[in-house]
Amino acid sequence: MVKYLMGKFSLVVCLSCVSAYANLILIHHVYTFTHITLSYLRVLTFGSYEIYKQALLKRFPNVKPALIYALSAILGDVTGSGWLCPSEVMKQQLQAGIYPSMGEAIKGIWKKNGLGGFYQGFTGGLAR
To answer: What pLDDT is stored for residue 78 in this prediction?
Structure first.
């Protein structure tokens, strides 16, 4: 009887370890993906801000610079959100356990909703 219970207990412990390990792998993948995505987001947002600012200053030399800077910041944020939204959708669906891997998330979102599936919540992201 003790051996039987010990065997069941060992199996439960083993399955718990496998589950914990799988969760750690998922957390690692999500963290790495998020870190890379946010790095590109910063580059896109601030890089595009400078490009927009220079182009608008050349195109509209008589407009107050403060207005140009504000418009450039808005356009930079829109550009950055265009990059961030798809990665956020994939990350959230991975964290929710809807898909087991990033590749599966990409395939599943594309199959279910097409390109628009990657931009679920885009307007809400712009509003913040």
So the answer is: 87
In one letter, which amino acid is 67? Answer: L
CA angle at 72 for the pair 54 and 51, rounded to the nearest 5°: 35
CA distance 94 to 103: 10
Domain that holds residue 41: 26-127
Residue showing tokens 């964290």: 95
Q: Which amino acid is at 120?
A: Q
16 within some domain: no
The pLDDT-based confidence of 4 (bands split at 50, 70, 90) is very low
* 83 contacts 44 by C-beta, under 8 angstroms: yes
Domain count, the chain: 1
Give per-residue pLDDT as tens, 66-89: 999 999 999 988 888 887 888 889
Q: What is the per-residue pLDDT across 23-37, written as a single tens digit (0 to 9) for each?
A: 545 555 555 555 565
Q: Which long-range contacts (CB under 8 A, 24 or more apart) does 61-70 make?
A: none
Closest CA to 48 of 84, 85, 74: 74
Which residues are within 8 A (CB) of 89 and not within 5 positions of it... i.e. 6 or more apart? 109, 117, 118, 119, 120, 121
